[in-house]
Amino acid sequence: MHKSIDCGSVRKTHLGQEVVIAGWVHRRRDHGNIIFLDLRDQQGLVQVVFDPKSAPEAHITAESVRNEWVLKIKGVVSNRPEGTINSDMPTGDVEVLASILTINCVSNINEITNLEESPIGDQPTLGQHISQLAIDNGNVELDLLIEHGSWLKIPELFHV
Fold first, then answer.
1. Is 106:5 a contact under the CB 8 Å cutoff?
2. Domains recognised in the chain with CATH numbers
3. Residue 145, SS3?
4. Mapping DSSP to helix (H, G, I), strand (E, B) and coil, where does residue 70 land?
5. How far apart are the first and last CA of the chain?
6. What's the CA gap between 26 and 39, in Å, rounded?
7. Handedness of CA 88, 7, 49, 54 (dihedral sign)
8. pLDDT one-digit tens code per residue, 8-58
9. Separation CA 83–CA 80 (nearest Å)
10. 63-82 residues labelled b (16+ CB within 10 A) or e (exposed)
11. Do 91 and 16 contact (CB within 8 A), yes or no?
């Protein structure tokens, strides 16, 4: 199953088409029986819907998914129901009704910082995450090296 389209490129012109998308979970919402994920890649976000009636296995897997996990999803592009269109998003008038969900990478990023409500532009950088790990683990020397961009000193720190 290879990616067929970028998350941020899904539009009404793709209605009824089966697509394969891949990206990071930006936000997860569980509305009881139905699970919604905002999946993002370099091109933007798209909403993915997991309905236990149409894809019970994918829905069961989606119950465990958390923010920043890397997923691959196969599904059909459909119109969002009336009253749920998000005009603030380029993909806000469509959603992908998932049929297959593959977890490519599990992340524990929420243990470092809570990304639940962060807009895309406010996402911490990888350097900030590594820096936070260094602080959390009490490795101030590693933190200082990272903060000052002294990446070449890291092998010395680990005696490599």
1. no
2. 7-105 (2.40.50.140), 125-157 (no CATH)
3. helix
4. strand
5. 39
6. 6
7. positive
8. 999 999 999 999 999 999 999 998 889 999 999 999 999 999 999 999 999
9. 8
10. eebebbbbbbbbbbbeeeee
11. no
